[in-house]
Structure prediction request, 108 residues.
Amino acid sequence: MLRGKGTPKAMPKERRQEPRTASSVPLDIYDPQGRMVVGEGRFLNLSTIGALMESPKPMKPKSSVRLRMVPSGKSALEIIGRVIWARKTGSAFTYGIRFSNREPSPAN
Prediction:
């Protein structure tokens, strides 16, 4: 039996619709037309519908992005998404990205 004051605090409810997996996959960041706009970044975690991404360059919330990644030993994949939120963390920025297409497509 636990002794102490008050009742135990409830764990915060998970707000994500899909579970996230830790990642460190590097990626190239393009605008929706396929021109490189930001350069490079990396996923910190991802799911089938979104990701936490880090990059040294600022991007605005609500902007669309095209992300190209090359998983180890695999062909390049392209994912289209939207910046949901942005935060400055030290010398880099972190972003919440919501994917527009559920299935990554092969990059040309």
Residues 34 and 62 are 17 Å apart (CA to CA).
